[in-house]
Amino acid sequence: MPMRIWGLLLVALSQALVVSPAQAEDADSATTRERLELGRRMYMEGVLPSGELMTATMAGDIPVTGEQLICGACHRRSGLGSSEGQEVVPAITGELLYKPLRLPTSKPPLSPEQRPAYTDASLKTAIRDGVGAGGEPLGVFMPRYAMADEELQILLDYLKSLPTYTAPGVTDQEIHFATVVSDGVSSATRKAMEDVMRTFLVQKNTETRNESQRAAHAPWHKEWMFQPYRKWVLHVWELRGAQQSWSDQLRAYYREQPVFAVLNGVVAGSWAPVHDFCEAERVPCLFPTTDLPVVNEADFYSLYLSQGMTLEAGAIEHHLASDGGATQAVVQVLRAGDPRSAAAAQALQSLGGGVEGRVENVVLETDQPADDAFWKRMIDAADGKTLIVWLGAAELESFWTVASASKRRHRIYLSTSLFNSDDYSGIPVALREQLYFVHPYELPDKLTRLLARSTGWFRAKRIYAPDEREVQANAYFSLKMAGGALKHIRGFFNREYFIERIEHMVDNASYTSVYPRISLAPSQRFVSKGCYIAQLEGGEKAHLRAISEWLIPGAG
To answer: Mind listing the domains of the chain with CATH numbers?
Structure first.
């Protein structure tokens, strides 16, 4: 072969073997991402890179595996630790582990060391053998993990990646929040919500001025108490037009001014676009007023007051199963174009379980009146079946007349959130024993006492809107939860840690909004989990009386 041809071949071969800097960087990035994902699975799921479950021993020689030894269950998603009773679980982010831990007992230059900084070697010893950086044994509740050196290194790389830096939306002086409202929300509802939020911020910022001054001159043992204080700044993100465009609008707002968290909010329709935005951007979204949340316990950043219409459907199914109505066929009446009505009907139909018979949907078209003729056909068709009516009070005037005059007897379920009225005087007494209301809130006779604290504050601030008390109570709850969590984040403006603090404090909250019982755990995203089934009692001024305990669908 001529030398010229050989030369061309060698040049081509050398070019083929050369990897550009950009290609090498991409390959390194991909490898890093893969290792971090392997580390995340170890930390959050207890799964080794091989796909096998991690194993360990506790309390000397007790073998444990799987969920019992998931790092994130105790040290939490943020890596910033937690506490339970007298037990304190320390922070294990790389930034903190690889620095000496010093006790806050004096001013600079340096306070005494509680432990020296970890190295890769000493941290591996701690994880594998339960011996700390200073040679001291770790607590008995810390598992001793059986892992190879490379497996440990992958876990350490993940710990180093856990952020302790300040999240977007926070400066040294300010912390930015947003609330969301859509153009389909009534002006009265919007005003009621915004009045609460803006008034709260004025009061909060007045207090913060004093706390900021204390932070600059605080004694050493109280510095941590004042570090989180910032001026609160509220942005109202108004969504206009079709829901399909809301995601783009939210991203535009966020680009203009990042926020630390979204607080409360109310929209006309599904909350799903806001939920998806917050999960994608890892922005905490706290307790919006919505009957149409996203029910996905796998998501992390969105916390809700309740499951809304899905919960109400589940409560009816639960009651039917426990009260002898499970074998009856079910007829549901819903209004076309009403997303809440449709969501409730769909949720019940998908549940099965306590509804063993066939579920039939009857849809009132958008322009179809709910008149006497419709209800006569409806009641005749539902003879011997359970009737569930997902409509509001304004569409039931003819129903009361027709149903009370009919000789056919039905078990009839209604939703108080859709009924949306405390006036039951139009319901004939003869019909009341057939009616069952699913009620996801505190009962009316106790609600005034439950809301005494917030109502007193609204009245004092001259912003009370009695027709919008649920909206105002929910907004106040989200603000109180956010403020309480920020008091305890120790200056770590980490969004994951912020949510973890809220999870920790909800069970002990003195204020519960319009819900009688609230609780939250790391795997839960809904603070209120139940409903009452209620009936009417009394004369012309009828009121709801619970005939069931607080029902939690799927529990027991």
So the answer is: 23-161 (no CATH), 174-305+446-508 (3.40.50.2300), 309-439+532-546 (3.40.50.2300)
